[in-house]
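#struct-help
A.M.: can someone run this one for me? Single chain, 917 residues.
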Amino acid sequence: MEKKMRFGIKSKIIIGYLIVIVCLFIAFIVLNSQISSLQKERNFIIDHDIEVHDLTNRIEKHLLDMETGQRGYIITGEASYLEPYNSAASSWEKDYNALYQLLNNNPNQQEKLEKIKGSIQDWIEAAGEPTIALKKENNTKELQQFFEKDPGRQYMDDMRSQFTSFRNVEKKSTETRATELDEKNQKIKIGLYGLLFFVTLISLVIAVVLSNSIVNTIKEVTQTIKRITASKGELKGRIKVRSNDEIKDLGLATNALLENIEERNWLQTNLAHAVTMYQGIASVDKLAEKFLFTISEMTGASFGAFYVREENDKGNLFVKQAAFADQKSEAGRASFLIGEGLIGQAALEKRTFVINDVPDTYQLIASGLGDVKPKSIFIVPVLFEDEVIAVIELASLHEFTALEQELISQVIETFGLTINGVIRRMEIARLLKESQAMTEELQAQSEELQTQSEELQMQSEELRMINEQLEERTKDAEEKSFELEAAKEDLEEKAHQLELNSQYKSEFLANMSHELRTPLNSILILSEMLEENAAKTLSEDEEEYARIIHSSGKDLLALINDILDLSKVESGKLDVLLAEMNMSELPDQIERNFSHVAEQKKVQLKINKAQDVPDIIHTDEKRFQQIVKNLLSNAFKFTESGSVTVSIQRVADHRLTTAMRTIDTDCWLEIAVADTGIGIPKEKHQLIFEAFQQVDGATVRKYGGTGLGLSICSEFAKLLGGWISLSSEVGKGSTFTLYLPSLSNGLIDYEKVNFAYEEVAVSVEEAEPEAEITEIDHPVQPVEPSLQDDENVFQDKRVLIVDDDQRNIFALKTALAKQGMTIMTAHNGIECLEMMKNSEPFDLILMDIMMPQMDGYEAMQKIRGELKLVDLPIIALTAKAMKNDREKCLEAGASDYISKPLDLNQLFSVMRVWLVN
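D.P.: on it. Structure tokens below:
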């Protein structure tokens, strides 16, 4: 049978629209033809009739111009009146010929035109030309006689009547054509309405036919669905559709849906039945038999076996617990190991096997009439918590359908839980029996324990009372803990505030150091120059004044340094640098530094150094020297007569305290400074080690000082791992003893020493010329140059001083000018750059760091970068010597660095090094 051609709804609708469009197209062609015809007739009326009237009017106008020109010329005699006459006389025939040609399809009108032409010619011959000729001859008499008769008037009247008759005929002809055009227009309108009605009728017919073909089919599908719905779950009915379109597709899809729903209903019904059958079963073999019977009934299986996992010495073994239609013959296996046979393999791989090509040797299904070979085998494992606890094998005389396989798979999903529950219940039953036996035994023991329980209850009551007491103590402890936490937070806040105050104080002291050092620099330089009296213009008294000023400036510098040292120590930011120190040189250093002081005060200086003192110890030599110098300075200050004795010895092992032994050190030294001075009362021994404290006001007035020396010494000693002790008696003298370890293995409790010293001003210590020279990048041994050598080095050298303080500029300019140098000055970095761009090259620049507008750092960077003066020596000078400022100056482009107040010998030494190089 040939396949029926598909004719869809879309195709039906498209064909219907195409038919309507074709009808509309035909109607459009007919209508367009009629409209074109009407347009031609309308154009003919417009072009022909208007042209006829226009030419008629023009011919009449020419006659009027000829008559007017003739009369004007006759009346006035002016030749200009002949121009319109002559023009009209030459033009009217052209218009006449055009009009005559235009009326070639109307002989009657042409005949009338010929009569009009004859009348025009008669007027010209009888009235026009003769009168003009008489006027030209100036024959007035004949003209008068001519106009008394005036034959031309009759010609004019005839022509006017002829033109009126001609126009009337043309007007009637135009009206006739317009009437005919209106009749045609009316016919087209009627035809248009008829065509519209015809197209509408065809469209309605097509729409009714198409809608009926669609709606009727949909009604059939709807009625079928309603019948299925009214059948109350009976899904056997199917939709039958005769048309071959989308409705048929809908019907087929609905039939497929019904089949799917029917299969799902069957699946859910059997699944619910299979689940409910497990209730009340308490043994595995009964459960297996019930399961095989139910599944075989649902799927049509003819044979089945149920294997449950059991554990033995060989491992997990799957044992047959039940069978359906089993012949009890030797063909069946009673058990399988994992991986053995299809049963064992299904348990091993945890997957289902479906075998449709059954071999001939497979066990036969027995019936009353004989044995039959199955066509399909279905083996499925039962899982519980991802472990195989059973395997089921089914055999059927037909192949298992996909729906039957899905039913078995869904039943198996929850069946593992059921099997495990039954096994657990069996285990619980077994344990219950055992527990009953044990209960009887325990009952006897419980009676014995009853007496013990009463005793324990009494102990429990005692423990409860103790527990209540502990809870009360715990609450008290928690309250105290909260109070301690609040106190801790308060202390942390105060510590933070103290840290801020220390930072502000350190910054204040650093700034004050700068402000004090700047004028002090000028004082020391100028007083030193006055003291030298190179020009020999000062008297001895004036030289003494200069020495006193210079000495006072140094005392002020020492005071500034002491204040800065105390600030650093209090803030815990002092830099401690451990290195080797030669103790064998210490007596000579003390002798060299304080022998002149002893001579001035007429006090004997004694230095005793024990033989067991090591030559080399490890400590911060700078801080050590400062402690010794401060102790000796105090000893000489408060001793009017007698002696000052320095004793240096090693602390013997038997004298070491427990605290001393805990410190990792090579040895302990004892440096004692004893004097025969005024002595210190016992109650003041602790007070004098505090900052700005002395024994009493009288001491301050009599001996002077700030009370910082001992405070600094005490703090320095702590940083170096030691301490200072005092033994004194009023009127007999004092002994200050420094105990100091040799720290070859580093600082003690190193983590508590704060090395973050970037914010703290660096104290510039009074040192020997050698110490000052070691601050320079290129250290040289100090040599006392001759005047001739200085003149050779400094003579005619151009030096630029950049400083914002006029006092420093004056002092430096005066000192350098005496050496034969040419000095230029600038007050900030901007002026410095301008002078370097606009003046001759300089041999050396002395650059202050802290200046307005542009500081020394930026000026040096621009000199090295923008001006490309890489080899020009630049010595940085600053009064605010922050830690790492020397490195910052060198990085910015400085060749060397000196801190204020300046020592002229040091300045000249550094300048000499760079000018020579």
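A.M.: thanks! The chain has 22 helices and 20 strands.
D.P.: also worth noting: The two ends are 120 Å apart (CA to CA).
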